[in-house]
UniProtKB/TrEMBL annotation:
This is Zinc-binding dehydrogenase. Pfam families: ADH_N (PF08240), ADH_zinc_N (PF00107). Residues 16-316 form the Enoyl reductase (ER) domain. It comes from Plantactinospora sonchi. InterPro entries: ADH-like_C, ADH-like_N, ER, GroES-like_sf, NAD(P)-bd_dom_sf, Zinc_ADH-like. Gene3D superfamilies: Medium-chain alcohol dehydrogenases, catalytic domain (3.90.180.10).
Amino acid sequence: MSIMRAAYASRFDADDPLAALVVGERPEPTHPDPDWVTVEVRASSLNHHDLWSLRGVGLAADRLPMILGCDAAGVDPDGNEVVVFPVVPDPADPRGLSLLSEHHPGTLAERVAVPRANLVPKPAGMSFVEAACLPTAWLTAYRMLTTRGRLADGGSVLVQGAGGGVATAAVVLAVALGKRVYATSRDPAKRERIAALGATAVAPGARLPERVDVVIETVGAATFDHSLKSAAPGARIVVSGATAGHEPTVNLRRVFAMQLEILGSTMGTAAELAELLDLCVARGIRPVIDGVHGFSRVDEAFARLHSGGIFGKVVLDHTT
Ligand SMILES: NC(=O)c1ccc[n+]([C@@H]2O[C@H](COP(=O)([O-])OP(=O)(O)OC[C@H]3O[C@@H](n4cnc5c(N)ncnc54)[C@H](OP(=O)(O)O)[C@@H]3O)[C@@H](O)[C@H]2O)c1
């Protein structure tokens, strides 16, 4: 059995997820289905999902050890440069879907096996490092703004916790789509960086100059009340994460009186990923990158994500 280097969860640690991370050797990916192919990973990026997995959220103990990672860009067996769409069939449920690293080994490895249908051409002008940012956080932000948030019908957006991968993506995409964008961050230095992206940066909880049409919510309990208060009549509050707690207090009176829509959103489709790539190429959009770490420094990259101090995506360059 041949082996490859990989970053994987060996166990769960709810309090100290970094302690459950192992960088070592795992078997090469194989898949019995002839429609699956193996991609040589050139770059990957981390998501909060990887920390949840190390904590034991969304990953069952009987699937350990599990190679982490949802995002990758690399080269397919025919030599094509590709971006990997990370939503794959759920082997436990024929009608269900899962993310790479939930049932099938993830992308934080030399190679990853995926259905051929999950390969999206990497735009020629985009580096592997840039492309590896897009499949989870950027796709999630794109779907939240467009399909779920129906931003085309609105003029303004609020993005909560703007340092995160999804949040920075939402800021950049909403600015590129010509909307008025407000974003909160607890960190004054991050607020400066948000302003440089073209958004109006405010402290968490601050009153906005206007009520917004769409709210992008990935923080959860710490910001949800502010999201409700900032929403214009008929606004969409789109939720895809709850980093700071998933059981906020919700003022239902405000929900019905303002006729608000609270919408869940998860990932996106392969077609939406292709649309996102086209948009990035057409508008010259480049992902916001917190830092690029060599694969041999994967533990350092995880520590950076875990610190909460990030601004944009934490990327792994698999060629170093
Ligand atoms: N459903 C899906 O398909 C999907 C896809 C991607 C992500 N997600 C979820 O979305 C969330 C965001 O993920 P991510 O990878 O983009 O980044 P992340 O690491 O969760 O985001 C970090 C940001 O969250 C904000 N934050 C964290 N704790 C906070 C607190 N107590 N109060 C206020 N803000 C806080 C911070 O903003 P500031 O420091 O700027 O204040 C920080 O920059 C995660 O929960 C993730 O699981 C879901």
